[in-house]
């Protein structure tokens, strides 16, 4: 159950990996579609917190191309646009596979729909 | 309209915070009278109308019932004077079908005595018919007694405590949120563990978060997910993380099997509000930005059932700085069974870090709701971590005798998210030292050791000190 909303909020956080650490690349992923509760308030409120290009890119990789290239405007987005956003953000689930840091190549594996975002020993700060 | 609230007999210190939170989530202002005494089972509130009382009764876990307050008195004589003085309130009901309900706290009233109480109200002169099944009006007579059992060692309600107060009112609605305590009963849950939080407290916590549709809530020490289900029940979208993925999945989960937390969410019909779960140490977290959550709700590990830990080697000089290649040529940390080393995480550090994390990760106005264990004799108000931008909303103690735990509710008043916080292993001050010049070491520091030592150490020291003088 890594929904694309979650993917949009996670960055690599290994020691010294502070740039080119987002978005994580989706690799060997298996995807499932599952319904999620629709909340217009949630979507409108969350649009400003999204990294839009990263979302569009991840969606396309998983075969979802209903999102416009330009970010939606939370004030004027139509219901149809919000429904499409809802589907991409919350109903596309990554079940297995991994997310890979574009910078340091750390592989964050996903199993049972749960990503393992733990750092390895050598990636931890020493203070 | 004056509303009489009758509370359930538990969690006294949670009563007022819950009323205030629920009023806020329902969108109305509630002023608690300055003389309100939350240790008593009855409270009279001033509300705009009956509808607001119903809203409280449908969402407050601690409300047994709400009614329209008609009169009160410390004795039956006083009560009757007050009933007669307030005739304007009850006269309109003189022709409707009705019944009486007579009850008492800490006392049993025999049916003969109950009848005598009803008879004593004859002067109201109602001519509606008595209807025990579907009355249009239910009048409630409640007597509150001292708990004589508490003093004499008898069970509650036995022995004759002194009468403290009588209330007379018109029933409006029974509290319906209390049935959720059964719905979320841990033992009936598809997935739970020995850290699962009991249903009633999980529900009280969810109310403190102001959970409602469209909000996003997060538990960074999610374990088996108890608080996710109750927050989601009230409409929130929820996310959880834990340093130990087995807590989220359940032990021995096969590949592709549904994780435990998701099974429980499905059982409640809440899977559509479970954003997801992830495995990580909250002090080394992958959140891309702050300002994400409407609430952070959590029961941090305080060492009694599962000790707090964080990533890193206990002996920092031994912590590796480069990856290790195993004899089979594979880097050790990419193996599927790789588990990074962990070190103990002092509770006082954790509490301080949690507030710093929340200051960043919450949206402005968002709430942090968490438990802090305290050693009863040593607790001081300054033990609650303080931080610029975070304001204390409520602090309710659940008392277990020599120790307790406090449910702390804070609000992010800062309008910015500030810098992404780091959580260094050492060297951060605890804050909250009263005047600010001196470092205050919170009493919950070393809580685990104190718990297992039975909180006896200080007592022994005191004994030793007094016997040597
Ligand atoms: C008291 S339990 C929470 C129980 C949970 N409320 C439930 O219903 O099961 C605390 C949890 O915190 C986790 N934990 C301990 N240290 C942590 C850390 N540094 N970061 C994230 N989780 C941690 C433990 O694995 C444990 O599951």
TrEMBL record, chain A:
Pfam families: Trm112p. GO terms for biological process: rRNA (guanine-N7)-methylation; tRNA methylation. InterPro entries: Trm112, Trm112-like. SUPFAM superfamilies: Trm112p-like. One of its GO terms (molecular function) is protein heterodimerization activity. Coiled coil: none annotated. Belongs to the TRM112 family. Interacts with TRM9. This is Trm112p-domain-containing protein. It comes from Exidia glandulosa HHB12029.
TrEMBL record, chain B:
InterPro entries: DNA_methylase_N6_adenine_CS, RlmKL-like_Mtase, SAM-dependent_MTases_sf, TRMT11, TRMT11_N. It comes from the Eukaryota. Its EC number is 2.1.1.214. GO terms for cellular component: cytoplasm; tRNA methyltransferase complex. It is an enzyme of class 2 (transferase). Residues 418-441 are annotated as: Disordered. The keyword RNA-binding applies. It is found in: Cytoplasm. This is tRNA (guanine(10)-N(2))-methyltransferase. The lineage of its organism: Eukaryota, Fungi, Dikarya, Basidiomycota, Agaricomycotina.
